[in-house]
Amino acid sequence: MDMEQAANHKSLQAAWLGRQEYQTAWDLQMRLVREVDLGVREDTLLLLEHPPTYTVGSQRHPEHLLLDREELARRGIGLFEIDRGGDITYHGPGQLVGYPILRLSGPGIDLHAYLRDLEEALIRYLASLGISAGRKPDYTGVWVGDRKIAAIGVKANRSRMRRGFVTSHGFAFNIKAGIENEGFAGIVPCGIRDYGVTSLEECLGRSITVRQAAVELLPHWTEVFGYPATMLPDRREEEA
To answer: CA 42 to CA 36: how far, in whole Å?
Structure first.
């Protein structure tokens, strides 16, 4: 992200939300997009998990969903057609989902560079754990060899208050071992038939919680995007 964009992002509030229904999180994103655009809220990064859910982006290919609606209901998997870019993907327990709500403004806004920054933060975090990850030509996301560990799909919402955009949607980072054999088996992930998926635990060979990964990722995320972040308290813990 260039210096002018970084200067416009004075600070970031990150929040761990635990497990959230997809519709609840989508509604929250839309509210935060409006508030960030109005300038009444700082840029925000939502970190959470979803129950089993398929989301279909703007590149809609019905043939990439391998289950009919009766089977989706039997398995308890939600299905949403949404406004991000990309094809179909899976969200579920054991996956860290990040929704950055960021205001991108100033001359020379480069949305492709924004996607590369999202990838870079995840790549640096994986490197800190001794995992060599990178990009694959022609595909968005983060890869460990020929297996995808994180999918990325975003929307740039045109600002109503000023020139520029406010981002929504974001990344889905597979954490728990076994997730690659669960919901992903019911789709052609991101429309890619030639390669598989993997998880952080599978690469690490040890256990790690989704929340731990969220906390450990944040410094790398802020390093790439170039402005300070604060992790908001988990109010569910305060109430416990």
So the answer is: 6
- 3-state DSSP call for residue 138? coil
Structure tokens belonging to residue 146: 């020929």
Residue 235 CB-half CA count within 13 A: 3
- How far apart CA 192 and CA 67 sit, in angstroms, is 17
Residue 172 host element (H or E): strand 165-174
Q: Alpha-carbon torsion 135, 141, 146, 148, what sign? A: positive
Report residue 45 as tokens: 């990064």
* Catalytic site positions: 190
Structure tokens at 129: 């754990």
C-alpha span between 231 and 233 (Å, rounded): 6
SS (H, E, C) 204-236: HCCCCCHHHHHHHHHHHHHHHHCCCEEECCCHH
H/E element holding 27? helix 22-38
For the chain, give every domain's residue range.
3-227
Q: What is the pLDDT along the chain (240 residues), one digit of tens a residue?
A: 443 444 444 689 999 999 999 999 999 999 999 999 999 999 999 999 999 999 887 666 777 787 888 988 999 998 888 777 677 888 999 999 999 999 988 766 788 999 999 999 999 999 999 999 999 988 889 999 999 999 999 999 988 777 789 999 999 999 999 887 778 777 776 666 667 899 999 999 999 999 999 999 999 999 999 888 888 877 554 333
Q: What is the CATH architecture assignment of 3-227?
A: 2-Layer Sandwich (3.30)
